[in-house]
Amino acid sequence: MVILTNTISALDTAKELVPLDMGTGSWIQRQFHRKKKDATPSRPSAPETKSHDGTMVVLTNAISALDMAKELVPLDIAKGVLSTLSSILTVVKNTMQNKDDFTEIVSRCDQIAQSIKRSTCGTSTSEIDPRITQALGELKSFVDGIEKTLKAKEQRTLTERAFSASVDQGSIARWKEQLDFFLRRYNNELIMHIAVTVDRIRGAGIMEGKSDEPDREPPPAQPPMLFGRDTLVQDVVESLNSQHVVLVGPGGIGKSSIAKAILNVDSIVARFNGRRFFVRFDNINASQVTFDTFIGRIAGTLGVRSNRLSSITTFLGASDVLLVFDNAETFQDVASGADRIAEAIEEFGALPTVTIIFTTRNRRVPTNLQCIIIDVPALEPNAARNAFTHTYHTNGSPAIIDKLLSDLDFHPLSINILAHVARENQWTLEELMRSWEGQQTRLLDVGNGKLQSLSVTIELSLTSSSIQRLGADARHVMQVAAFLPQGLNERGLEHLFPTVPNIHSVVDALCRLSLMYRKMDAYTMLSPIRLHISSAHKDDDIPSLNLMHVRAYYYKQLAEVNGKDDKGPWITTEDANLERLLAHDLSCATPMDMVFVCRACRQFIDQLMQHKPRPTSLRPVILRLPEGNRSRNADLDSKAGCAFHLAMLTHNLVNVTESIDLYATAKRLFILSQRYDLAALCLEYLAFQYTWLGKISAAEYTLQDALTMRREHHILSSEDEARIILTLGGATMYSGRLGETRVLLTRARRYFQDVNNMDYLSRTMRQQGEMELRSGNYLAARQHFEARFLLPTFMGNAVERAWNFIFLSAVDVREGNFSEARKLLEEASALVPEGKDVYTACSVLFHQGALASDGGDFDLARDFFRRVFVEVAAHGGQTEPALATYYSARNELFAQEYHKGRDLFSKALEYFAELSYMTLQVKCVRALGEIALLEKDFTGANLQFVKAKSLCDELGIHPDFLYNGLSPSKLKASHQGWKLFLEGHLLSS
């Protein structure tokens, strides 16, 4: 009779767990129903007060109900949940201005309290199903987050001496959605617990007959957050029609979540019904697994009462069944019984009724089982962004989010952990980025379980017996792989690890365990794994890393390719590894090693300039190099040489301000070491950069210093003089002294022709063409540019040919041949290698956009300038966004969109001020003056033109030659303000 009573009670409890309609349920739910119906009063003046009073009553009663329930339940974790819910509602009641928005939250709190009471009251803690305890733990973690958010707002309110705070409705809706999810899951666990209880009662023979239904575990629910995996899930479902499936990937990549999603696909549910099973091996260590524990796990999940293999096989053969073996690497890696386990799996898989999914970090599967191995990739960028923003809601810069996700290699677990950390700390994106840059690994370890700690999930792989059997070699290989950003080149493995005789076997084993993976011809790691290895297994421990062999391999490669052109592909695939090694070595180089390391650094930079021009991170470590005893010229020369070579690289990348700083540093060091020839060369390059920035007076003074230094130290050769007057010719051209420019360039050209220096001859002819263009001698300008095509240096040099087409298009524009100019720019565009020379590619777009703008096609021009930003986003660039902003502003000015033009010119001015591009600053100021004049703001126009003229005088630029003859930056002739101002004819009002 007692058992029958318990059965009826259990069934009544289950009935209460079905969704409640609004006419039933607790007193609080009925109050909310009544409150909602009363929310539309007959008189418009009363509702606000009535609604507020009603809400306060409901909140007060809900808090009391939660406190009473807390005293009744036996579990500490249940008490904790109810206490936190009471605290949340107390903060809402005392502090929140928008209390009415929390009605659904209060309702969910009451429903949770009712469910907890039904499942735990009158039951000893030992009898409560562990799954219920686990669900309560997860719920506690979530409501703690809500409480923390509300209390932070409450504290901020007190600090700011305000009377109330509020929470946006979006956050409240998300909390309600999450509480609904936890409530459904909790009730599902409770229903299953009750069902098991009823089954056991039936098994005791109390009801008529006996049931053969086993006490089986239900399949897991659909994961609440699964982004970007729909196609993968569908592919696996289709594969299951004909074969077993192995989902392989590193820890935290989402294998288990994908398997759970598959178990809940409609077609899978229809095919297997209740015979869908998820056998977990993630909560047991491989050292604890024997054949008996393996079989016991399966039997427990299936509900088979006997742990005999034959009983399990009989159950599996009865009808179609889907088995998921989660974290299968646990039993694949056991020290004993592995053969018997493999045989059992093969026996299960051979049954026509059985379909198996393995989730594993190990690519090893039973030999006689027909499986398809599917690698689980990292998330696509859009899916990663959705996963991140679903948890951490922000309106900040998408670029910061994308940078963070890229740093994480789009690894799902890492994304989820970082998003929760950001949300719990209420960080802005900028604060999150600063924290990430300063303490990466700590941010990815916020809890003890594998779902809250990157370290835990990775260490599960590192402690496997497969890794342990490899000994210290495996850790050593992983440390080196973590040290080198591009991983381990397959062809160089024996050289990188000469003391590891079985290096290929070690690397293969690490790949099988998903700790490494193959990418093209290299073996590398996902960024989160790299971070963990570098932090927990220090990569700066030189003896364990054995950087001696790494250094020997890479420095030998550099020495072999020095001055040669045939190893370009090698440097393009290993450049990041070399940079990492050099940064390390430069940071800790001893005086004995400094000359050797600096030579390697210069060789590396030369190779980059030749084969893969790009920015580097070497500047800080080079500038921190010790200068040693001033009598040790070798140390000074070494540091100066590194700074000079890096200055040349940044020079070629059009990073003018950084190159100026580096040239100045190199010049100072060369003077200290009495290398006056190289110090003078630094001055020449400085002058060239000053000319680029528009600092014409500074350029002329610097060139005079270079000449003086060479004369005083008797190191002025004819070639040196020709090179200096060539640069001086560019400066005098800007200052408007075209006659002097013509003489200087003629002298330089004659010398470079005589000595057959084709490179400098080409530069001279280019400046002559520009000079004639400024003079209005278009035929002579064209002849100079066309003659460049005949030089040997142009054969096969696509970028130089592209620039020459740009120059010729400028001549056609001046002559009014716009269709010819367009054709030339199309030819130039076709010559630029994709992603190889961003500045040249963008320069073509600037000219094309300016030409469209000149012709009145403003929408087409906007499209060209948008493409510049796309190019920069894909391949990087510092100068290009500033120039694109200027040309966009110019286009809006021509389109008579003066408000847009003014905003864009102001923004461009900020860019150019940051970059120290003085000529372009003057152009922006002049343009702002023209806009002010067009808007009849004569005072504002005069102020801008006065500022522009003052800058011209300071820089040494002749106002009539402000605009580069080859640049399309010039304004229309109809913009007369600047001309009238210079002539003194501009009205002041």
Structure report:
The protein is globular. Strand 7 (about 515-520) and strand 8 (about 520-525) form a beta hairpin. It is about 65% helix and about 5% strand. The strands form two sheets. Strands 2-3-4-1-5 form a five-stranded parallel beta sheet, sandwiched between helices. It starts with a helix and ends in a 6-residue tail after the last helix. Helix 35 (about 720-735) runs antiparallel to helix 36 and helix 39 (about 800-815) packs parallel to helix 41 (about 840-855). The model is unreliable at about 1-50, about 200-215, about 445-450 and about 535-545 (pLDDT under 50). It is mainly α and about 1000 residues long.
Task: Compose a concise summary of this entry.
This protein has 47 helices and 8 strands.
Oligomer: single chain
Distance from N terminus to C terminus (CA atoms, Å) equals 105 Å
General shape: globular
Which structural class do you get from the secondary structure elements?
A: mainly alpha
Rg (CA only): 37 Å
> On the 0-100 scale, what is the average pLDDT?
81
Strand order of the largest sheet: 2-3-4-1-5
The proportion of residues forming helix, as a percent range, comes to 55-70%
How many strands? Answer: 8
Number of helices: 47
Task: Set down the secondary structure blueprint.
Elements: H1 2-16, H2 27-37, H3 47-72, H4 76-95, H5 103-120, H6 130-159, H7 169-203, H8 230-239, E1 244-248, H9 255-263, H10 266-272, E2 276-280, H11 291-302, H12 309-318, E3 321-326, H13 329-332, H14 338-350, E4 354-360, E5 371-375, H15 381-391, H16 398-407, H17 412-425, H18 429-438, H19 440-443, H20 454-462, H21 465-470, H22 472-483, E6 488-489, H23 493-496, H24 503-512, E7 517-519, E8 522-524, H25 527-536, H26 542-545, H27 547-561, H28 568-587, H29 591-611, H30 619-623, H31 633-652, H32 656-672, H33 676-693, H34 696-712, H35 718-734, H36 738-754, H37 758-775, H38 778-788, H39 798-815, H40 818-831, H41 838-854, H42 858-875, H43 879-894, H44 898-915, H45 918-934, H46 938-955, H47 977-983
Helix pairs in contact: 1-7, 2-3, 3-4, 3-5, 4-5, 4-6, 5-7, 6-7, 8-9, 15-16, 15-17, 22-24, 22-25, 27-29, 28-29, 29-31, 31-32, 32-33, 33-34, 33-35, 34-35, 35-36, 35-37, 36-37, 37-38, 37-39, 38-39, 39-40, 39-41, 40-41, 41-42, 41-43, 42-43, 43-44, 44-45, 45-46, 46-47
